[in-house]
Amino acid sequence: MTPSIEPLGDSAAVVAWRSLDEASAGRAVQNATAHLSHDSIEGVIAVAPAFKSLTVYYQCGRLAWSEVEKWISDTLCSVPITLETTRRKLDIPVCYDSDFALDLTSVADAHDLNPDDVVRLHWNAIYVVQMLGFSPGFPYLAGLPSQLHTPRRASPRIQVPAGSVAIGGAQTGIYSCKSPGGWNVIGRTPVQLFDPQRDPPCLLRTGDVIRFVPIGRRQFDDFADRT
């Protein structure tokens, strides 16, 4: 399917696959992002993927809209949406200890499960990073079992610790920085997802395949002490 290409202000273009289902749109976004980034032209600043669209940012003083639109169209015309790009596979350790799992009991109660069931269902799933956003390096992960789909909290917290693993609707996310947030926190990872001194600063990227590995509190503390 050919995506729509529309201007966003005078220095960006939105490429969207709105009529595709979530899985197909996700593959299309990932493939298009990879090709546009690889075949970039002078004046293009960045390609930012989202759920069913991506945004191309460019220097309007160097490129006209017609040039950008033609480059995007020509680049994507030969890219099949079903093409599988190479995906990184990463294991992320998570401690589901009660000190970290602030909303585990409420999530379990909402689905008539016990907390151990929630933990088992959560870490047994395979997730894909659909996009990064909200805060630097925060991953929106598809793949949450339907039994755990839980609305966001009615009252967001003023501060959620970095590393908190949480459920928001049909997705799982990881708070990459200490920040306000309204997702249901069920655990925490000692892995630092965002470090401005690191190159690149964000550990994860769109399309990564994520598996959560449960660890105990002692393992969490040992990992944290080493980093």
Summarize the structure in words.
The chain is α+β, with helices and mostly antiparallel strands and 227 residues long. The chain has two domains: 4-76, Gyrase A, domain 2, CATH 3.30.1360.40; 89-226, Cyclophilin-like (Cyclophilin, Beta Barrel). It is 25% helix and 30% strand. The protein contains five helices and 13 strands.
Annotation keywords:
7-stranded mixed sheet; Gyrase A, domain 2; 227 residues; 4-stranded antiparallel sheet; alpha+beta
CATH architecture of the largest domain: Beta Barrel
Instruction: Determine Rg (CA atoms, Å).
Output: 19 Å
> Can you say what the CATH homologous superfamily of the largest domain is?
Cyclophilin-like
Largest sheet: 7 strands, mixed
Derived structural class: alpha+beta
Oligomer: single chain
Mean pLDDT: 91
Helix content: 10-25%
**Distance N to C terminus:** 46 Å
**Number of extended strands:** 13
Count of separate DSSP helical elements: 5
Shape: elongated
